[in-house]
Every structure is written in structure tokens, then in C-alpha cells.
Amino acid sequence: MRLTVGSKGPNIEETRLFVEWLLKIGEGKLGGPNHGEVQIDIPHDILIKDFVDPTSALIEFVYPSILQNYKKRDFFQERGILAPKNEVVQEINDLLLARFPGEHKEYLSSDSIDKLESVNEDFDPSLYSPDVLNGLKFPGCPNHQLILKVGVPVMLLGNIDQKNGLCNETRLIVKSLGNRVIEVEAVSGSEIGKRHAIHRVTLNPTDKKFPFKFNRRQFPLSGNQ
């Protein structure tokens, strides 16, 4: 299942077969009848086999010569890494960020509990210290700590301005880092090349495990592999 790339791009038939194979994995159609667990043979020609550090090898494979190419808009349009868990996403983001030149900037969220919206009348908000709230992570919500550099790819979390192409999961490139505003350039979606100013917003992620309404004020961005 080798994908051959020539002067006119990937071989269309090989790409079609590869996509069909991925869909069968996602739909659980490979490996015969099973109860949710099955062993699948991965074609050797799509594996990275020569490595010491597998994560670094994956980054180098997907983003070759990143220092020479990161300023090119289409470099990140054509590449991406999918990860199965948030912990792996964070690991890849940290390693990728370290490869970019320049100083990083840290942004910390303001987290709070909406006492008027607590689910349980007996709920005691004093049980949740600021450190505990800062450590909470929710799908589709930025982390308490956001570390960025100019030039790194990020992903927008939420529909901020759909008319101007700022939709959930839009891929962006950081252009400047201010204290209150982050300037970005779109590399996916309907407004590729357009620059935007991203401000902090207040998000209200929900999780039935917690008996309260949680507020996080942060830039709606996450590192994007």
C-alpha cells in the first residue's frame, strides 16, 4: 500500500486504496468478526522503522526540515499528525514547539466556578482550589497553560466568526503574540491567507462528573500538530 508521489502529486489509485483501508479500520471491518478487539497488520511501507525516539522520528517525517520551511503557508496546509489521546497530543505539541526558533510566550487562563449555576445545593466551592481548577481539562476547551511561539501552527476551538472563516478546527499560523491579542493567519477553511486578531473568550465546558458550572477565560486556541 505504498503511496507514490510524483511531479503531479500522489498516485490517485493508491490514495483511493489507502483511504478505503483507513475507513475499514475506523468502521471495524478489518480482521473479521470481533468483539471490539482485533489485531491488524500494518503495511510495512507506511511504517517509520528506523528510529531511536519514535515521537521525534514521526515529527521529522511529517515536518521535514521545519526550520527551512515553517514560514511557507502551504507547508502546514499539507501536513498533520493525528493522535489517539490528549496526552499524546500534548507531547507532540511540546516537541514540535521546541523546534521553532525564538522565545515562547505563556498565557494562563482565569478559571472560576459559577456558584449560581451549581448542580447540587450542598456543593461547597471551597473544595476546589485555584490549582485544582487550573488542572481541569475538557474536550474542545483550551488548557489553563497555553505556550506559543511566532510561526507555530494552532487550531481554533469554537466558532468565533463563521462569516470571516473563524470556525471550529480552523488551522492557523501565529504571526504575533501580544498581551491581549494574538494575531494569526488562516491556512485552512474558506479564508486562507487572511489575518485575524484573536482575543480571550470565556468558555463554559461541561462534564457530568463535576457538580458545578465551570468558566475558563482563555484564548480559544490549542497547539496543532
Order of helices and strands: EEHHHHHEEHEEEEEEEE
> Mind summarizing the main beta sheet?
5 strands, antiparallel
The helix content, as a percent range, equals 10-25%
Number of structurally distinct domains: 2
Structural class call reads alpha+beta
Q: Based on CA inertia axes, which overall geometry fits?
A: globular
Distance between the termini: 24 Å
Uncertain residue segments:
1-9
Count of separate DSSP helical elements: 6
Order of strands, main sheet, comes to: 9-8-7-6-12
What amount of the residues lies in strands?
Answer: 15-25%
Tell me the total number of β-strands: 12
Nearest-integer average pLDDT: 83
Alpha carbon gyration radius: 21 Å
Blueprint (SSEs and pairs):
Layout: E1 5-6, E2 9-10, H1 12-26, H2 54-62, H3 66-69, H4 73-77, H5 86-98, E3 105-108, E4 110-114, H6 130-134, E5 145-148, E6 153-156, E7 171-177, E8 181-186, E9 195-199, E10 201-203, E11 213-218, E12 221-223
Antiparallel strand pairs: 1-2, 3-5, 4-11, 6-7, 6-12, 7-8, 8-9, 10-11
Provide a quick synopsis of the model.
This protein has 225 residues and is of the alpha+beta class.
Describe the structure.
By secondary structure, the chain is of the alpha+beta class. It has two domains: 1-46, no CATH class; 48-223, no CATH class. The protein is built from six helices and twelve strands. It has helices at residues 12-26, 54-62, 66-69, 73-77, 86-98, 130-134; strands spanning 5-6, 9-10, 105-108, 110-114, 145-148, 153-156, 171-177, 181-186, 195-199, 201-203, 213-218, 221-223. Strands 9-8-7-6-12 form a five-stranded antiparallel sheet. Strands 4-11-10 form a three-stranded antiparallel sheet. Strand 7 and strand 8 (181-186) form a beta hairpin. It is globular, with a radius of gyration of 21 Å.
